Amino acid sequence: MPKLIKQGLTALLLAVLPVLPAHAGVCATDDTGQQVCLPAPAQRIAGLSPGASELLWSAGAGDQVVAVVAWSDYPPEAKTVASVGSHTRLDLEKLISLQPDLVIAWVTGNPQEQIQTIRNLGLPVFSIEPRDFEDVSSVIERLATLAGTEAEGWAEAERFRTGMAELAARYSDRAPVPVFYQVWDEPLMTVNNQHLIGKVIALCGGYNVFGELPRLVPRISDEAVLEANPEAILAGGMGEENRAWLDRWQNYSSLDATRVGNLFFVPPSLIQRPTPRMLQGSELFCQKLEIARGRR
User: Fold this and answer.
1) Which domain holds residue 86?
2) Beta partners for 252?
3) Are residues 155 and 181 in the same domain?
């Protein structure tokens, strides 16, 4: 960051932020293992990803959110909050001018240089990266602790925890269905077994045909999909109602998934954000695999 810009941000920070007491009142450990302590529950919170903002509302802290980023569209109230750029490029001056007393960062989604600048300026940063279902509940509970909204947040965390356990009990032992999940179109991308969506596939009794690949979100080719020959293909697409990504696979009549009509759309926000709505998305995902089983 250029020296003059950094000096300007520092001056702005000193002008708008109050002096914090030395002793912390609430503490929580983030997903990087860093303990974040605040003198009192946060009252002005910035969510630097759509998922982070949604998790804050799930934790009961929606009224305390003063900054979000582009595509923060759920719940609808999030769309009325000031935007500070996108998760990949933050408007730091605007963020600081909103005087947050807690910033929720996305470990692998936000630019680390900008997150470090935020830390250097003295703002508390709590980094999140849920990698399994329990992590989603845990993040909600920790955010509720930092926001002082434990009653609502912990209840929502338990609702999600119980719901996912019920889905696992219902579907995880069903006859396996070989599945390809398309997370992106160009370049063509999927998920491995360590990805949260990969764990949804397993929960529903699916077999991820690309699950053993080393990258969390690997790039693949059409030829690789043809060779794997999944029995079902599921895709999120660009937007909540856009099924266009599935059109690609209609051109491959030799694919088992195409031959029997197992090309399924799942609204991306229900499955690609690590939030409680993943319960709804997982139930829909499991229902699609049940349809595939019924077509055998």
Assistant:
1) 3-160
2) none
3) no
